[in-house]
What does this fold into?
Amino acid sequence: MKNPAVLARMNGMSAIAQNVKVLGTMAKGQIAFDAATAQEAAAAIARHSEASVTLFAPQETDPHSEARAMIWDNFDDFTDKAQALKVIGDELAGSIRTLEDVQGAIDPLGDACTACHTLYRAKH
It folds into this structure.
């Protein structure tokens, strides 16, 4: 990775993925439910989603980047999708109290991620 801006974006996206994984493994019973950990993961998803708009604002490229160029052609839509994930994360951070809350969060989180990745993420 030669481009530090792209590396920062990739690190931000990885942080979102890691926190979604925390919630997913908790929802599946692969790790024990802990409300504080779940709330913290949801808050981190919100923070990194919000930060992604700033990280993606410069049109930077790198051979290792998975970002499609159409992000910058449709940056308002990209921003809206990042904001939608932030809202979900914020809501979950303030509302997760039970395992059932985490289990109910997985589909909306996954849908928000998929909505953006389907359009704006290229697979290598």
